[in-house]
Amino acid sequence: MRNRSILPLLLAGLAVLALLAFGGTGFLDQLTEGATPEATSSSVPAPGAASGEPAAPQTPAPPAAAPENVSGLPEIRESALPAEGRRVLNLIRAGGPYRYNQDDQTFGNFERILPRQNRGYYREYTVPTPGESDRGARRIVAGAGGDKYYTDDHYESFKFIAEGS
Predict the structure, then answer these.
(1) Which of 26, 103, 127, 150 is the most exposed place for a label (fewest CB within 10 A)?
(2) Where is the composition biased (Low complexity) (predicted)?
């Protein structure tokens, strides 16, 4: 009977070893991918919290330099995007929230118009089209390197978005 109480522990240990051997840390990273510093607890109090003093306002990080257009695709200035596109671009910068469930999902680049990257590099976002009853054809596709592209013909063509101009 004593051997049966060890069996669950042995199986759990084998499962962990198999996970590390076959899934690697990449699998474990995927499980914790959504964790943000705000979502995790910390034993260090915020500045001023222990002394009762108000915390100093945090200054936002300076904007990252806009990536260069190395795609060879034509450019569109951010200011030339439709108003809905500029709003979606601001939502992307803020991390959401997004209007459609399909937004912030992996874009496969099956058309091979955008520069080739590993799967998961590109994410797509819907740019609403006034008067359309569905998502319409307009999208912004954002790369993990900060590069962003606009299509108004459902991936038939793309333009590199020159941000800040």
Answers:
(1) 26
(2) 39-56
Q: Do 82 and 26 fall into the same domain?
A: no
* Residue 83: per-residue pLDDT: 96
Q: Please state, in angstroms and as integers, the Cα–Cα distance from residue 37 to each residue in 25, 27, 40, 41, 117, following that order.
A: 20, 20, 5, 8, 28
Q: Is 13 helix (H, G, I), strand (E, B) or coil?
A: helix
Q: Which two tokens stand for residue 106?
A: 């992996």
CB 163 within 8 A of CB 89: yes
Which domain range does residue 15 map to? 1-33
Distance between CA atoms of 80 and 117, rounded to whole angstroms? 27
Whether this model's pTM surpasses 0.70: no
> Which residues in the chain land under pLDDT 50?
18-51, 53, 55-56, 58-62
Q: Give the E-state strand segments of the chain in sequence order.
A: 75-77, 105-106, 122-126, 139-143, 148-151, 159-162
- Nearest-CA neighbor of 107 among 119, 97, 96? 119
Give the tens place of pLDDT for each residue, 10-52. 666 655 554 444 444 444 333 333 333 333 333 344 444 444 5
Provide the number of structural domains found in the chain.
2
127 part of a folded domain? yes
Catalytic, 154? Answer: yes
